[in-house]
Amino acid sequence: MSHPPAFGIMAEFTEGDALTGAVRAARAAGWTRLEAYSPYPLPEAAEALGVSAAPVGYIALAAGAVGAAISAGAAWYVSVHLYPVNVGGRPPNAWPVFMPTTYLVGILWACAAALIGMLTLNRLPRLNHPAFFARGFNRATEDRFFLFLSVEDPLYEADEASHFLRSLSPLRVTEVRST
């Protein structure tokens, strides 16, 4: 019976500082295809990975502005051109009347875009990934920190990657196989 092909190699650490140091060491050694997993955000590790702030805020702002503009435009068009009704002597294009719906539609569009943008940028939902089956990886959401080196990295040689990770003093090093 043949084994599935290797997907990469993973090191497990007990502290966030150890993971951050490992990420820095891997970057300094020239590794480019690596991922870090932790139960809470580690800004220093993210910086060492070269992960920039996700543009979710800009996505939400743009979608909110577009949604608000569409809402205001539609309300104006309906009130001025399709159904102009004189209510209490106000003009048909009284913009303050359109503001509550414009605001609410803008917020709705911004929230929906933020959710969709975050899921898309994080490549979620990811229901199956070979790293999920690494030994002890279930603790990545509790109290463990993991550094994953991918076989797609130009530096990857199984023995050298394993030796490199073991030099970082992890709790354990596990080979991750494709499922």
TrEMBL record:
Positions in coiled-coil regions: none
Source species, domain of life: Bacteria
A family per Pfam: ActD
TM segment ranges: 56-78, 98-121
Keyword annotations of the record: Membrane, Transmembrane, Transmembrane helix
InterPro entries for the chain: ActD (IPR021776)
PANTHER family, A to Z: LIPOPROTEIN-RELATED, QUINOL:CYTOCHROME C OXIDOREDUCTASE MEMBRANE PROTEIN
Name by which UniProt lists this protein: DUF3341 domain-containing protein
Phylogenetic placement of the source organism: Bacteria, Pseudomonadati, Pseudomonadota, Alphaproteobacteria, Acetobacterales
